[in-house]
Amino acid sequence: MIEPHTEQTGQAAFRHIVIVGLGLVGASFAAAVRAAQPDIRLSGVDVDGRTRAVALERGWTDAAWAPDDPAFEHCVRGECDLVVLAAPVDVVEQYFEHLAAWDFGGIVTDTASTKSRIAAVAARTLPHPENYVPGHPMAGSEKNGIDGARADLFQGAHWILCPDAATPAEHFPRLHELVTSLGARVIALPREDHDEAVAVVSHVPHIMASSLVQLACRHADDQQALMRLAAGGFKDSTRIAAGSPELWCGIAFDNAA
Q: Is 241 within 8 Å of 209 (Cβ atoms)?
């Protein structure tokens, strides 16, 4: 169901957010929060040094650390009240383990395109699994990494949140307020229904676009004019095929069913 826009209280729903993964979605989230709620302190975690430097240069984060930086642990233990996992599902488990070891008691959400695997990992790893609220912004770009990030990426987009019966009553409204402040529209969806729903509207279309590009490439050498004949329909149908192959391979395996 689509939730109504909440009243803005004038006070930020969170004081200090740590964003793990400063790629397209994570960096865009940082940029959007910075623009919408500049009083929130933002810290980023990423394995790539250049990405961390760009996030700082653009003012999207107040701090940017490598995953093994002691400042990351210090922040989680004592300062931040929301951790946003914007990293691929196959590397998220190690961050759940960090949060568990550091006894993080704040809210944890994510931006992954699949939910069944990551929710299972959270349930068995986190000491407070009820504080994990799965999330998925239905927004993206054919551009990858922080170089494709922009503050308006979520304007008008749907952002799925998947609370359940164990989710503390205050968690959903706080996340709802944050997400809607970025211009997105929140949809509450049972986490067990998420993967089937997004397969139809997101995952299958991407596989179709990638397959069409592969088909065209196989025939391009035989028919020299083929790519010159490609018009708007072909371009519209294949634009999303430029997404990260590594990311989409992971999504396809996670949501194979």
A: yes
Q: What is the pLDDT of residues 27-37, one digit of tens each?
A: 999 999 999 99
**What CATH number was assigned to the domain covering residues 16-191?**
3.40.50.720
Give this prediction's pTM: 0.80
Check: CB of residue 73 under 8 Å from CB of residue 9. no
Taking Cα atoms as reference points, which of 185, 194, 191 lies closest to residue 3?
Answer: 185
Chain segment 174-183, per-residue pLDDT in tens: 999 999 999 9
Q: pLDDT class for 2, splitting at 50, 70, 90?
A: very low
195-254 maps to CATH 1.10.3660.10 = yes
For residue 47, report the phi and psi dihedrals to the nearest 5 degrees: -75, -20
The dihedrals phi and psi of 142, each to the nearest 5 degrees, come to: -75, -10
What span, in angstroms and rounded, lies between the C-alpha atoms of 143 and 81?
A: 30
Residue ranges of domains in the chain: 16-191, 195-254
CB neighbour list of residue 175: distance below 8 Å, 6 or more residues apart: 13, 107, 109, 133, 135, 161, 186
Give backbone dihedrals phi and psi of 67, rounded to 5 degrees, phi first: -55, -30
